[in-house]
## 1
Amino acid sequence: MPVPRFRTTLAITVFTAGALAVSARAAAPHRVLPGETLWSIAAANNFTTRTIAAFNGLSVDSAVYAGQTIQIPTDAEGAAALASAGVASGSSSTSATAEASHTVTPGESLWSIAGANSLSPGSLAADNGLSADSLLIIGQTINVPASSGSTSTTGTTSIGAPPPQEHPYWTSPIYCPLCPSGEAYLASNAAAAWDAMRQASQRVYGIDLYPGGPFSAYRSYAQQLYLYNLYLSGQGNLAAAPGTSSHEYGYALDLADPSMRTVVDEIGANYGWAKTEAPDEWWHVNYVGP
Ligand SMILES: [Zn+2]
């Protein structure tokens, strides 16, 4: 009696191993989800951004869009794509631009890392295949290029440094641990409602609510223009034309973490906060009023 049982188990094991071996041989298509970047897709598949970009015939700073299909190569296919693109695989030491890798620590942002290395956030973001308002994750590795002349080596349009934070009289500060100043701004009524919702979130869910960085709440016209220019040059996410974004009215906020969105969906209506704009951007919530 034990003999046929053993045979059955063996047959299943062999079949499973065979199926895995076959599936690992071919490139696999990946449908881009909202919020994903070339970098995040590459990281999720244990590839460098350069490898995924080369295999798909894209530049490392290409923006990807929800619904777009990106091919994920096998290790061999990825290495071949890098070689034909003129980039040595497995090591960055032979590339023309000296690069150091930096591991993100709590409280850091693209702005703070760029500032510490005399780089513009836009060029640092582009070098890592990120948009300038991308959120960094603690433990994430960021490639930091040598600062001198680095903005011209990729051949992308230079957008310049981001405009500084402003604080118009009709706005009020909100808590922003990822902002250089520790504060972001919203229209005063939206800020009061935000603070009340934040306290409820901490009390009921144990989740703090805050924006992802200095571009993630109120934006001046100059800041919106900066993001719009990044978008037009292919270096940033889709951004509304200046004069048309609810961020410029202090009535929108880009959340730092998906768990925060869950809270806004649950209790936001009690505080006038909702998700009625930018359906492809989970992080974007807006003040609709009482
Ligand atoms: Zn937004």
Note: Residues 171-287 form a domain with the Muramoyl-pentapeptide Carboxypeptidase; domain 2 fold (CATH 3.30.1380.10).
## 2
Amino acid sequence: MRCERGSARGSGNVITSKDSAAMLEKYDLNKLAIGTLGSHSALNIFKGAKEEGFRTVCISTEKNAMLYKKFPLADEIIIVKDFTELLSPALQEKLRSLNVILIPHGSFTAYLSTEQLTSSLRVPMFGNRQLLHWEANREEQADWLRKAGLLLPATFKKPDEIDRLVIAKLPGAKGGKGYFLANSPSSFRKKAKEMVDRGLLREEDLEKIHLQEYALGVNVYPSYFSSIIKDDVEFLAVDRRYESAVDAIGKIPASEQLEIDVNPTYTIVGNFPIVLRESLLPELIRMGENVHKKAMELAPPGIIGPFCLETVITDDLKIYTFEISARIVAGTNIGIGTSPYAYLRYGADMYMGRRIALELKEAREQGRLPEVLA
Ligand SMILES: Nc1ncnc2c1ncn2[C@@H]1O[C@H](COP(=O)(O)OP(=O)(O)O)[C@@H](O)[C@H]1O
Ligand SMILES: [Mg+2]
């Protein structure tokens, strides 16, 4: 998800691994706590932290705090009005006094801008903050993935170039709201006009629409863990999403679909685990390794911890990648307890939340914590 696309590159006050090291000097490392915002994959993260022996701190709204009491995984719940309060110096001071390392997830990038995350969140954070810039901008993200040798859907600069089925994406759209499909310049203009007439799109947004080849196939979301401590990119889980309304459209006969106004919106409701054809795994593993390798050049030391590729696999088994998340995705919640690929690597009881905690534990044991808090 990307709502805010601020850029702080070159602004000079970006928080680095050195700053994290300085903050850690005041920490009691024996009482290290893992903290995150109460939403998205917090239960996954807290359970993993507890299983690796860490204390846990949940920053939650009053309304959702019941969830973190119902599943007793948070040692401390800090109530906030909303998640932007994470920027308050008083809350940051409190988190540091509790020896907290923050684990970023989708709600961090949804509520805070890239600039706020890289420059104003003065609490040690697991991951590479510099990569947030590459992730936040559609063009830079595509550039990164292409340079890593991945196959991306073709893009079209203007509607007149459309010569195949495309998906028209609005900048900053959430859950694919207002996205539509077109297969020629004239069908694009007709659909765009309809969208404007129905109030789903503003005339001025038409200029900013991103036209991308529609990859016809099934969605596959592989999740990886880039371990700085073990110097390895692990392949841990694969999921697909359960999206409303697009996953419901097939329940309506085609003749009736034409009569009623159904839109292929992609609001996430949940996730399913996938076990892939074994012959697809080598390519997916190579893709993860190459994305990390390219990231090492763009923003050393590359990806720290979890990341996920959003792909479509076609019937001739081409793998198109259309997005990356350089952090834990909620799809890894399917693996809480265990998942086939985590099992193959670690045996039972390994999943993304726990893998993060294990990395922090090993980094602490080896005196290398600043390396994973860049
Ligand atoms: N090039 C594409 N080909 C086929 N389906 C796509 C393509 N791009 C996006 N989609 C579908 O649209 C959904 C939302 O697109 P995405 O770019 O991930 O938007 P968001 O910013 O909301 O995450 C995806 O989950 C996928 O199902
Ligand atoms: Mg997406």
Note: Residues 281-298 form the longest helix (18 residues).
## 3
Amino acid sequence: MKDYKALIQQYELDVYPRRDVVLVKGKDSRVWDDQGKEYIDLASGISVANVGHCNEKVVEAISKQAGTLITCANTFYNDAKAIFLEKLFSVAPKNLTRAFLTNSGTEAVEAAIKFARSNTKKTKFISAMKGFHGRTYGALSATYKKEYRDIFEPLVPGFSFVPYNNFEKLAEAADDQTAGIILELVQGEGGINIGQKEYFQQVRELCNEKGIMLIIDEIQTGFCRTGTMFAIEQYGIEADMMTVAKSIAGGFPMGALLCSDKIQIEKGKHGSTFGGNPLACAAGTASIDYMIDNKLWKQAEAKGKYFKEKLSAHQLSKVREIRVIGLMIGIELKDKSQPVIVELLEKGILSLPAGTTVLRLLPPLTISYEDLDKAVAVLAEVLA
Ligand SMILES: Cc1ncc(COP(=O)(O)O)c(C=O)c1O
């Protein structure tokens, strides 16, 4: 057997902090390494495998499309794309009416920044401390963490950061040059910080008053993760633009920027070779169909509640707080999360960090109650 770890260490640029495991197979909420060891996946490729690993409907759709038409330039119409767009807008917030299709989350954010600037003729943006929006230059400029930004500066000018869930500070930062406000409804990477409804309603009003585009980033929260198809449904507001990606296509790389009628863009001013390609669209249609057919948002809500109840019943001396919305779980620890993540891995559980002290759990929404029970038992042992 080849030494996969050594090959990756030799040939791939070393940008990712890695766990000591080579994953080779996945099914539903389980994954396997190259030694045949089985794991319960509470990471889902960072909220990508919402419909489970190798979901049968998604596998079938990709296989069928791969034998029909893999690529199609965006200058031609395409059946898979038409069907996908109709499906996407059958579940999207009703005020969002058109999409720009991308291959990733950061590209969707990038498009939102460009469209906010071109539509408002203004250049400034406000985003939140601890917010994460991606790694390309525009998205990185809206991303807070200094370690992600420092060696790449200067970034795009005009971006500023305000404390999350603090309307006064945000209102103070907004001026007549502000083109857009970019926010997550639940900060994922920043520590599973849940946005307050009243805060977002005030932000919406401010945007209306000042002609600012409200850009809601649902890249991590979208597609049933928080207990509704999109988290925005729980906030009683409308976004001018909304970014989605990650779980949109069952694990196939895809993203989208959903726009309200306010957003207009001239032909030829933006584009992508692969964005909305037939394979991604076929996977996306199958994935959204599966979510609808299985009411996946309801499963997320019920399983998140169940998990919190079960875990909270244990004595967890390492834990400060458990924050849960749907199946988006943040366990705030009293100390660093890294040793806990390593111990969980040894015991057959994949988990994620969010900042230095938060353990982030984003299981496939299809996870069985049996696997949740097993995961809780291991977590209780490790966090005791
Ligand atoms: C909220 C949010 N926005 C943007 C991104 C960037 O998405 P991608 O990694 O697909 O570029 C992420 C990825 O983790 C995210 O969680």
Note: Residues 188 and 220 are 7 Å apart (CA to CA).
